[in-house]
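Here we describe the complex-level prediction in full. Unlike the single-chain runs in Section 2.1, the two entities below were treated as one system.
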Amino acid sequence: MYSDKVMDHFTNPRNVGVIENADGIGEEGNPICGDMMTFYIKVEDGRLTQVKYKTFGCGAAIAVSSMISEMALGKTLSEALAISNKSVAEELDGLPPRKLHCSNLGADALHLAIQDYLSRHPQEAASLKMPERSREDVYEERFGRFGHGPAPTEKAD
Amino acid sequence: MKGIYLDHNATTPVDPLVLEAMLPFLQESFGNASSIHAFGREAAKGLTTARETVAGILGCTAKEVLFTSGATESDNLALRGVVSANRKKGNHIVISSIEHPAVLNTAQALEKEGVQVTYLPVDSDGLVDPAQVKAAIRPETILVSVMYANNETGVIEPIAAIGRIVREAGVLFHTDAVQAAGKLPLNVDELQCDLMSLSGHKIYGPKGVGVLYVRKGVKLAPMITGGHHEFNKRAGTENVPSIAGFAKALELAEQRRKEDARRIGEMRDALEKRLLELLPQIFITAQGAPRLPNTSHLLLHFIEGEGFLMRLALNHGIAVSTGSACTSGTLGTSHVLDAMGLPKQLANSGVRISLGRGNTMEEMELAATAIAQEARRLRDMSPLYDNYHNGRMAEEDRRQYDVWASK
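The structure predicted for the assembly as a whole is:
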């Protein structure tokens, strides 16, 4: 059910930890839903020089956090903001449909950490070039993949 | 498969003696038990013997034993069959809120069809209070269904006490005894039940076969219609190989019950004791109630059950399961833990360990060490664990972890 890449990142998660005196912290999800992620970032000259995280969640949630930390490291802020749930899932060679919400959480937590940084650096925020989203992304967000509406949630066994 | 199998409440391997009892009916004695020629008679003989064996263990007559395709069918037949045949008497049934989905979802489906259903609450150990059963019974109540032992926590319900109350009120009493078989006595008179569901594959028998005990005089409408099989209560050519296997499995389960319970109970207790030594901040669910000797349900605080389960399987070859619904992708927790009043943020940390005949004391030490090791690793990367310690967690949330903790 999980791809080899998911299993690899789940078994050996990269960049786990916290950053003392982080420049930005983003927390998303909650323990009631079963998934929670906290991202910590360090920013120098508009680039993410450190990305760390802590994750409470299933195998997919852990793999997503690990993959996002790798993807975001060294990126400019606008490049990191362009990391989407879709691109994370793609980098992981796909996620089972019922686990796609984990990739949303991960991308959101990273973006929240960046927003946290930007809220304390308004000048940088003003000059930041926000990533352009493709028409396909906007369509998919509104109407689901192939226009069939959002993926159905599955019932517990 | 190499590894340590600690998921016997999910399913068990077929005992070699059970397989031996099945093989003749797959090969030379393959006849249809309804045929009147010698081939058929031989199969019918196997069927009769199996039915008598089961009846002997349940303390009933052979005619009160129906073979089904498994406990899910048995539960369905009990609820739907009783509701359908007793419409004149009433339209209300009572079930506990911690039933297996085979009962719970069937009751919910009946509710959509207009049947009134009362869901009995449980206490923080998961126990049903017989007094509340009594209070829930109305003049139009036709059936009460409470499971003998819970599949997630192993808690044992006071079935005889509940059965007495229900039957004194002139209401039928069904119990899903799937997890109790082989661990607790199954005499239907002592348990005061009118209907009882059993499963083959939980007692070292084959999958796809079960029993519904139906007390003489109970009105039950068939769900599967066709030929005159199973006393007109369940049509379909009898699955004689599996039925023979079921009977052998139940016979062995009964013979070995006390010895198994003692030996497996010792291992379970040793495992829990060791885990409490190795790992702080865990909670053993339903510890205050009588539990099945083979089942241990734990909350490993700050850790999500599925991630833990996967690591334990990958890194140590240890198979356990989780009551956490994250495995299924719904943002919900176990209905059993919910009913027990467990805070939702703790319920996602549930892990079920269920032992069986094949386990050894050495495996318990290995399992305890591996569980503690993986739990520590996952706590190291848990934001909840950080928040608990660094004061970022709300005081009321923090307190829950202290309240629900085994010492």
